[in-house]
Amino acid sequence: MSVLENSFHKFEMYDDTTASGKNMSGKNFSKLCKECGVMNGKTVTTTDIDIVFNRVKTKDTRIINFVEFQQALKEICVKRFKSKSPEEALQAVYGLIEGKKPRSVGTTVSRSFFVPCAPGAVMGNSQGDGNGWDAHRMTSSA
């Protein structure tokens, strides 16, 4: 398996419990293009990615296989690297993708934790917090 094909499979499987390991959805193709820098927002936009995806996929499907993926990259590369020859542009796009894997953007790690305090310790505002609890005494005023 090539390095490019390995990246294809990593993005293809991302966040898809029904993934077969052989076909990539449009959502994951777009994620790959965005995270790897193929889509730069200037010469290659989200719209361009969606148009190319729909052009290369088999009719009446919502997925592409690795061969269709390579065809999509051939179409995108000349738009992304206009000053290069088609072969140089394709190699440049491969270079952006090879060895990459999806990031979990937007995932939040909880950093909250409980810190036990000694009985009678001063906690917060001694005026009470307005919800029926006196933060100083840690007793209910209700």
UniProtKB/TrEMBL annotation:
Keyword Protein transport: no
Family matches, as Pfam families: p25-alpha
This protein's GO CC annotations: cytoplasm; microtubule
Compartment(s) of residence: Cytoplasm
One GO-annotated biological process of the protein: microtubule polymerization
Top-level lineage group: Eukaryota
Statement: the UniProt record of this protein carries the keyword Transmembrane helix: no
Alphabetical keyword list: Cytoplasm
GO molecular function ontology, one term from the record: tubulin binding
UniProt record similarity statement: Belongs to the TPPP family.
Name of the protein this chain belongs to: Tubulin polymerization-promoting protein family member 2
Organism: Callipepla squamata (Scaled quail)
Top-level taxonomy: Eukaryota, Metazoa, Chordata, Craniata, Vertebrata
